[in-house]
């Protein structure tokens, strides 16, 4: 059993929701990312999503785009991120780590090399934003060989027939996009999210997490009972882009607010 499945089973026994935290690898630099990962876990984050910097992150809003830009200024690479995960694993062998990015970055290494190297360094899952199921057979095959979960996205506009296909190809958890548009958008409609997530949970036994638009304890509270967890990204990336001397304090305050709202 992988770390992701173990985490959700453990939280289910405790009747708790998963807090998934997203930051960009190498933003504003690798040591800051490493410190933030440790701080996130200490504060109550259950799963870490590490964004892989890309020159054209089309699904991202301004906050995360800027995070990608800051990381790219340091010439951060996918291999650098794998090394970062390896270093993190020397101190934490329990917290699941998911790499989230765009297809070109992962294809540059090739599915076989990436999957084996990712496994060796302690990666638990991947979420490739622009990888449709029709073009993911090879990647899915290779990641499964190495027990790496392929997290899939479901949008509010995704048809039921399409959701079934997506869920059949997913593992680990399903990421429900609570809003139409880009990351960091506003105004979650809890009633609309509830109806969509209920339908989604009829179609899969995998845990479902809700992302996009969750920025603080208040927005977390509005959707926490609708799924198995929430994802917070833009709010954390904004902190990583602030005064480096204040990152630790602001990150601790934000995660504490979110953790308390969930539990």
Q: What are the SSEs and their pairings?
A:
Layout: H1 3-14, E1 18-24, H2 30-43, E2 47-51, H3 62-73, H4 78-89, E3 97-101, H5 103-109, H6 111-121, E4 125-128, H7 137-145, E5 149-150, E6 152-154, H8 160-169, E7 174-177, H9 190-203, E8 208-211, H10 217-223, E9 229-232, H11 234-240, H12 247-262
Parallel strand pairs: 1-2, 1-9, 2-3, 3-4, 4-5, 6-7, 7-8, 8-9
Helix pairs in contact: 2-4, 2-12, 4-6, 6-7, 10-12, 11-12
Q: Please, could you describe this protein's structure?
A:
The chain has 263 residues and is of the alpha/beta class. The chain has a domain at 18-151 and 215-262: TIM Barrel, CATH 3.20.20. It is 50% helix and 14% strand. It has helices spanning 3-14, 30-43, 62-73, 78-89, 103-109, 111-121, 137-145, 160-169, 190-203, 217-223, 234-240, 247-262, and strands spanning 18-24, 47-51, 97-101, 125-128, 149-150, 152-154, 174-177, 208-211, 229-232. Strands 5-4-3-2-1-9-8-7-6 form a nine-stranded parallel beta sheet. The longest helix has 16 residues, at 247-262.
Features:
263 residues, alpha/beta, TIM Barrel, nine-stranded parallel β-sheet, 12 helices, 50% helix, globular
How is this structure best summarized?
The protein is 50% helix and 14% strand. By secondary structure, it is of the alpha/beta class. The protein has a domain at 18-151 and 215-262: TIM Barrel (Alpha-Beta Barrel), CATH 3.20.20.
Helix-strand topology string: HEHEHHEHHEHEEHEHEHEHH
Instruction: Say what the CATH topology of the domain at 18-151 and 215-262 is.
Output: TIM Barrel
The first-to-last residue Cα distance is: 25 Å
The major β-sheet equals: 9 strands, parallel
Q: Helical stretch count? A: 12
* Spatial shape: globular
> In percent, how much strand structure appears in the residues?
5-15%
**Highest-level CATH class of the domain at 18-151 and 215-262:** Alpha Beta
- Based on the structure given, which CATH architecture of the domain at 18-151 and 215-262 is correct? Alpha-Beta Barrel
Mean pLDDT: 91
